[in-house]
Write a structure and sequence with these properties.
By secondary structure, the protein is an alpha/beta fold. It is built from six helices and nine strands, in the order αβββααβαβαββββα.
Length: 167
Amino acid sequence: MSNTAAASEHAMPKVGELAPDFTLHSTPDQFVTLSELRGRPIILAFYPADWSPVCGDELALFNEILPEFRRYDAELMGISVDGVWCHAAFARERKLHFPLLADFEPKGAVSRSYGAYRFHDGTSERALFVIDAAGAIAWRYLSPVGINPGADGVLTALEQLSPPRSD
């Protein structure tokens, strides 16, 4: 089955379309609503599961280059179908400095709306989205789940939105 065929029956939102809004748990008692973050670029990093080797490497890389993302005033958020307690343990263990959002119940609803849900195994695809300050999809990338996509595409997309700050 091709990588695209493994994704949700919903197509990935196209570049230029408004990003599907959502509200997800970032901690057991806190939520993040995408539309409330308008005014700055947002990076959504969908990934299959906490604790898997490739996901750990991908999120560690993003954590390491977080200062570079912030030079573009961009906010990074990881999203998987894992629960908030799993995210909390994983983020603590990996010393992550960005929110992991729980697309847990209804399972994969946000992943589905982004065309990034794997029905055959109940996880999210490895998909990246850069959303512009107005809330539209500026860039998207669907990676094979076993491959860390790196951050070059995200950084190029952010650079095309605006030049980095020189702090």
